Structures are given as C-alpha cells and as structure tokens.
Amino acid sequence: MRTTPYDIIVVMTNNWNYPIILIRPGKGVWLPKPQSAPFIYIVDTAFLGDKLYGITHAEDLVSFGIDFDNKGVPTITTIERLIRHPPGNYWFNVWSDDNGNFDSTNNDTRNIDEVADNEEQSKEDTIEQRRKKTGDDMILEGVTPWWDDEDEVRDHWYLVESCGKLLMVIRQVRVPPYNISFTLKVEVYEADACKGAHCWVPIVGGLGSQTLFISRFFCKSISTCDEADQDAIHFIDTGEKYNMKSQTMSKIWRDIEYFESMWIFSPELVV
Length: 271
Description:
Layout (H helix, E strand, L loop, with lengths): L1 E2 L5 E4 L7 E5 L3 E3 L11 E7 L2 E6 L4 E8 L5 E10 L28 H6 L5 H12 L8 E6 L2 E12 L2 E11 L6 E13 L2 E6 L7 E5 L5 E4 L8 E4 L5 E3 L4 E2 L22
Parallel strand pairs: 14-16
Antiparallel strand pairs: 1-2, 2-3, 3-4, 5-6, 6-7, 7-8, 9-10, 10-11, 11-12, 12-13, 14-15, 16-17, 17-18
InterPro entries: KIB1-4_b-propeller (IPR005174)
Organism: Triticum aestivum
Protein name: KIB1-4 beta-propeller domain-containing protein
C-alpha cells in the first residue's frame, strides 16, 4: 500500500483480475481490465513525484501517469516501460511487447463442478481450476521460490523511493524446513539514465546516510543521524540489519511471519 500527497491509495492483490487498485477516499476507485498487462506482472510499487512506478519479477521498471476525471476519481492515463528486463529463460510469465493482455496457455474455463466430478482429476487440479476461475492466488506477490538441495530459497523484489531516487532491493532468503529463515544475499540498484535510456545501476557504497526499512507490504527510506544505522537495511521478519558499506549482515534475532508483518510509521507532519 502506498500513498501520495493527493491521498491516492494503491492496493496490490494476488488476484489477476484486480492486481492493482487505485483508491481516492471519498471520490472513487479505478481498476484495470482483468488479466491485463503490465498490471499482472507488477510485484511492488512506489510513488516518486506525481507518478506511480512499479517493478516486475523480471526487473522491468514501469511508470504510470495518474490523472483525475471531473469527479476527482483517479485513473491511469499513461504507461511507459523505462527499463526492460534482461534477456533470459524465465520460468514465470514476463511482459513482452506482443502480449498487451495476459495470455495463459493453461487457462481452462471448465466448470469447477465438472472438474471435481472427474475421478481422474487430482485435488490439486481442482484447486488450480478454482483459483483460475476466481483469479485469487494467481500472482506471485513479489516472491519467487526455488529449491537448493533440501532447503527452499526465496527471491524477493522491492521498490523504494529514497531521496528522489528509485531503488530496487533484491533479497535472497533461505528457508530451512526445521530452522529459522535467514538472508543469503542483498543487492541494491538505482534506476538511472544510461546513454539516453534508463537502466539498473548497482549501488556498491552507502545509501547517502539513509536507512531502508523493508517489509512485504510497506518499505520506507528514512534519513538518520545515527552512525550505526546510516546506510543500513532493516528486514522486519528476521530482524536482520544489512550494512551497505561493509556488506555485512547482523545476526537473526526474531522469526515472524513474512506475509503478516509490516513496518508502521507515524504520519509525517505537514506544515
């Protein structure tokens, strides 16, 4: 969830029919067309100025221009891909130029009852068909899981506005079956103009005395005078603190549910 000075609230869901929702309290709601690109590929968003930005699993950076109708209802009027994902073999769907709308080769629309009555269909197949019919849980939600030996590894993507810049934070977490999860690797990139086009530039030094607070549903960059916290990244689920300058990680001191935790900050005072 993100807000702007115009009191626009952006809600992201895992439903491919309503992946992104714009809300202006007291005015109205905007929804994209069901299963439409690039909205179904967006895994995190951030406001910079009067524009909304989003990133995909494949690391596209997309800008959305927002305008208002005569009733004050927000609407997305322009879409521009500023950074294109690098070429490669992706096991998940990526946004390409020739698929303006989402195209699922396995989008079976048979009646759920018919599937359930078919003895040859497994329970998992029935659940999958129900998910496709409702649209729920059809989006990866910014996490890509894979297996390394016997442990699950999760790759996470975040988009954070910091001092007028857009940062992409990539975090890799190991999830042992009988132990506490811990961070394996952290990478931070800045969206920058390169030879007339935007590209992701690795940040190898500090964060300009900023501190990043990272959680699934809310990320924030804060200026701090505390030297121990400058150029640090805090992860809410494990309590780990990553130092960008020394590239070191603190010890784990908590284990809370990643999808049920969020940083909360006091409202900023506007004078």
